[in-house]
Please model this.
Amino acid sequence: MTDQDVSTSGAGDGRAFLEIEAELGAHNYKPIDVVLSRGEGVWVWDIDGNRYLDCLSAYSAVNQGHCHPKIREAMIEQASRLTLTSRAFRNDQLAPFYQEICALTNTSKVLPMNSGAEAVESAVKAVRKWGYEVKGVPADEAEVIVCRNNFHGRTLMIVGFSTDPTARGGFGPFAPGFKVIPFGDAEALEAAITANTVGFLVEPIQGEAGVIIPPEGYLRAIREICSRHNVMLILDEIQTGLGRTGRLLAEEHEGIEADLTLVGKALSGGYYPISAVLSNSEVLGVLRPGEHGSTFGGNPLACAVARAALKVLVEEGMIENAAEMGAYFLEGLRGIRSNHIKEVRGRGLMLAVEFEAEAGGARRYCETLKDLGLLCKETHVNTIRFAPPLVITRDQVDWALERIDSVLTG
Ligand SMILES: *Cc1c(COP(=O)(O)O)cnc(C)c1O
Model:
């Protein structure tokens, strides 16, 4: 396999793969046409050996970089010892996983699940039950408040409170009990709370909406409002968490602590689906045997992988690097002179360029960047998100900026 420059070689798009996918797969994605077969750190290679800098990181699931050797070692070691017991029995990886993630995130109780959507579903189940048993909400009256333009996953409960017509259209009827308010507006939260409100579910920075950063003070304000009304603050940190924004959790930027924090994606460094609900003991304490579960949740392979993924994130200084390289990348993006750019924004290595509507959409820039060896993806029509693995170096940021500048100004 060679590391030849993609711009001087063939298309690298593997027509046969595309045709088979189109024929046999559900068409629920519209990928950039590159067929990847190998990854290492910030780099991935396609089936023709062309190399690309990954500026998506599987939607922030590979914060630790592709195929991190220490996570791989933990996975292989555990895979050859014990992979799945179900929670009918105990395994020797779950307790140390609990201890390590609790110590790292200052949490007192953990519920391990698999996908991010499952963590969201589990948190809503738990706060509803807490509402009935602890807060005293009348049966089946619990309300959860969510934000406009939210993204919390793809299950039926979740798309039911999405405001994106593509995500929810044609999938009803939906579960009741959700109220939608504008994002970044603390007064709207206060006004929406009733005696039956049990939780406020929100992303600290809206990722899929296009890296929308709320006004300074928003997290502190919603923390105060939730506390005053005895409403559980549920922060969905599935994308913002685990170093992405330059802090372990994005809530740290305003010095607050959520009642429930949802993590997933980078919890395994891209090796394996694992998610978790992190909470104080009062909320998760309402779940008793038989009331919730998952065959694979908390399995020893997932726990061993997550332990290694958390360890390298901290030990190898990835969180500090995200803060430093993120600021440098942001400054570089802000220096690009183009009439098509409406706004550049970001925190840590969660960055976005939004284009003017007249620019003709962000997709064409992603396609051209792919041809130059940089992979990124549009979110909605007019925004590109740049979110490379947190191990990116200054030279690699420069390499990316050179290409982004040439495409956006070309
Ligand atoms: C990706 C994501 C989810 C859903 O995670 P899945 O593992 O795809 O189910 C939920 N919330 C946020 C903020 C996300 O970015």
In short: The chain has a mean pLDDT of 96.
